[in-house]
Amino acid sequence: MKYARLTKEQFEELHQEFINFLASQTITASEWEELKKNKPEVAELELDVFSDLIWEGVLNQAKYLEHISPQSIHLFALNEDQMHLIGIKVKSDVDLSTTEGFNWLRENLMDDRVEFVQAHKAYSEERNLDKFTLIQQGANITKGELYNYMYKLIN
């Protein structure tokens, strides 16, 4: 398995897609029930393959990631050949992961306690795995509004 198995809730959301996936493997509903009962390791493998297919599609579509922690924000643009990072670090008791802290940042962007950094990083040979690792570390896929706002502000 390349990524991570989808959660029970994610499988429930993707129920029809999973049925279509099984059909593409020429596995009927009764055969699936029999697999789960008599060959659970094969059923597990099918779940893993389906999970990887879904993750691959999601990661191919992802254009921006953001990770917000109490003292910093990391905004990633997932460009074709490399990632671009905008990092924001706050040297204050403010907690950026709260609404109040985020509002403080908006009102104090030019304060000496707010530090901006930018960096570029080339992908490894496993581009989607690089993206997935950031998600596993707490980043969320976004539409890039915050990234684009900050990019215009500091460039």
From TrEMBL:
Superkingdom per UniProt: Bacteria
InterPro entries the UniProt entry points to: DUF6495 (IPR045470)
Source organism of this protein record: Bizionia paragorgiae
Name recorded for this polypeptide: Histidyl-tRNA synthetase
Pfam families: DUF6495
